[in-house]
Amino acid sequence: MIKIFQRLGYQFKEYVLLVILVIVSLISISLSEKPQAKKLKALAIANFAVLSEITESVASIFSGDVSVEELKLENAKISLQLSKLKKVAAENEELRAMINMRDTSSSPLIPVRIVSKLITKIQGNFIVNRGSGSGLVKGMPVINHQGLVGLIMDVAEEYSVVRTLQNSSLNIAVTLQRSNVDGILSFDGRDLVIKNIPTTYDVKIGDRIETSDFSSLFPPSVPVGVVLKKETNELGLLHSLTVKPFADIEATNNLFVIGIVPSKQVNHLEMNLLKKP
Amino acid sequence: MSNYLKPILYFIPLLLIQLVVVPLISVFGTVPNVIFIMVIYYLLLGGQIYGMILGFLAGFFFDLFSGGVLGASMLSMTIASFIAGYFYNENRVDTNTASYFFLVILFIAEFINSLIYSFAGNFNPEVRFTSLLLEGALLPAIYTTIFGLGVVAFKMRKGKI
Q1: A159/A137 Cα distance (integer angstroms)
Q2: What is the distance between the alpha carbons of residues A118 and A128, in angstroms, rounded to a whole number?
Q3: Which structural domain, as residue segments, surrounds residue A194?
Q4: Mind telling me how many Å the CA of A116 is from chain B's nearest CA?
Q5: Is A211 helix (H, G, I), strand (E, B) or coil?
Q6: ipTM
Q7: CATH number, domain at A175?
Q8: Which of B26, B70, B121 lies closest to A41 in CB terms?
Q9: Quick check: is A186 in a domain?
Q10: What part of B 86-115 touches A (C-beta under 8 Å)?
């Protein structure tokens, strides 16, 4: 009996090996969000990112102008302030009370540089050159001088992984600045979309989109993008909005982490929403 | 050095190129997969089983160092290498690696690799299937195949010398 199995195993060794490797891969996928796997990844990234950083600094030898980076930092701060001011101007007396809420424009901005990029249509990830040693914490929002870029997802001592807007696992509570319509922004593999907005709501092409007051994953009033396209579903009841992000995510190299540590309890709840269903 | 060990030597430099240099030449969010070009090349030299193991290990380290979903590349590269392994013929190694037939094999394998990677790494049910098929699989396959021209040209030239 054993000889028969041995002979079969030898005869179909490619298939046996394929099945074993596929099973190991599937187990790895199912365990990829577990703390042990995250630790392993953080350790690997921390070591590999040193090499990436050296390579990146060689690759960007002609773009290392410090004054440009300082201007970008200033621009990012002004961008946040401008967004806040625009909103305040448009709001009524009831909303003005919100000025006392968390003020993102005065939050510390931690400059970081991208050392490697994972560009795919599903998993947009960056590795940046600062980690827990610089005060970065999982869940901190990441912007560039144009607008929102993503969220810190994994942190090592010297490096962090940023999940970008172009990642199908990231869903963000956003609001349309002009009409205060709220929705959930997600990436559908091609575009950033906000689905299921009732057609009775006031939405126009070109409306500015920013993070919502309802999200504690992101601070309110961080600029995200503009409405590029509006499509109505077959029944004519709901809109699907295509959003053009302010930030040129693929071309960006310098980012800023907003040093906000969200409420632990709420953050825990929201980070759970990021996990796979 | 044995051909079987060469990919290990090339892996780290290629990984650095893939994650640091290649994003600089992305076209509409599509990048070529230089690591997989290496996997397919050595698969056609070493055979199906060798290629599967190489694809599995390359995928594992790529997932680990890139910050992506652990296991997604392992799965996609293993299956794509298994399929590409059917093109291996020890009597036609030169024909397979130093002719345009290499590009055909690379295109098919990379299409399968990207498609499986897109599905394995996606946890959002609202992502469009057409988007995964065209932009997630077809475009990277075309772009990778264009890069594979370099390997073929190099091998052809080496053959003439």
Answers
A1: 11
A2: 12
A3: 109-273
A4: 5
A5: strand
A6: 0.90
A7: 2.40.10.350
A8: B70
A9: yes
A10: none
